[in-house]
């Protein structure tokens, strides 16, 4: 048993000698690194936001304003009308169920109006 205790004590002593120079300091490591990481993250976020505004948002705003400077809504409407965009139901008969449904809706709205006025 005495040989086992000598081996254990020599291993402990060997640990002290070999790790005394390269042992990392782990106490307060998070406290030391959090402010630096916070400043770095904040600066990256601000840089990205300014870059997005200058490169994307301002260009988009300028493109839209230049488009609407020359845009003529009446000419655009005339172009779509000539192309037949607004002729989707022209020349078609209305189905009978649609007329019945609209009359039911009108009756329901009228009954709601009378019930509200009575109260």
Quick structural summary:
The protein is mostly helical. It has helices at 2-19, 29-70, 73-83, 96-118. Helix content is 79%, strand content 0%.
Distance between the termini: 102 Å
H/E topology pattern: HHHH
- The percentage helix is over 70%
Individual helix count: 4
Protein architecture, described:
79% of the residues lie in helices and 0% in strands. The mean pLDDT is 82. The protein has helices at 2-19, 29-70, 73-83, 96-118. It has 119 residues and is mostly helical.
What brief labels describe this structure?
119 residues, mainly alpha, 4 helices, elongated
Reconstruct the topology from this structure:
Layout: H1 2-19, H2 29-70, H3 73-83, H4 96-118
């Amino acid at each position: 048993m005495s040989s086992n205790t000598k081996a254990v004590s020599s291993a402990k002593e060997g640990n002290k000698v070999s790790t005394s120079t390269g042992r990392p300091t782990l106490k307060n490591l998070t406290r030391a690194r959090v402010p630096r990481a916070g400043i770095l993250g904040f600066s990256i976020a601000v840089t990205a936001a300014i870059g997005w505004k200058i490169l994307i948002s301002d260009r988009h705003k300028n493109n839209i304003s230049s488009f609407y400077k020359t845009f003529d809504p009446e000419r655009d409407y005339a172009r779509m009308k000539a192309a037949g965009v607004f002729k989707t139901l022209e020349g078609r008969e209305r189905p009978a169920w649609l007329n019945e449904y609209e009359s039911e809706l009108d009756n329901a709205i009228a009954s709601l109006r009378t019930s509200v006025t009575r109260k």
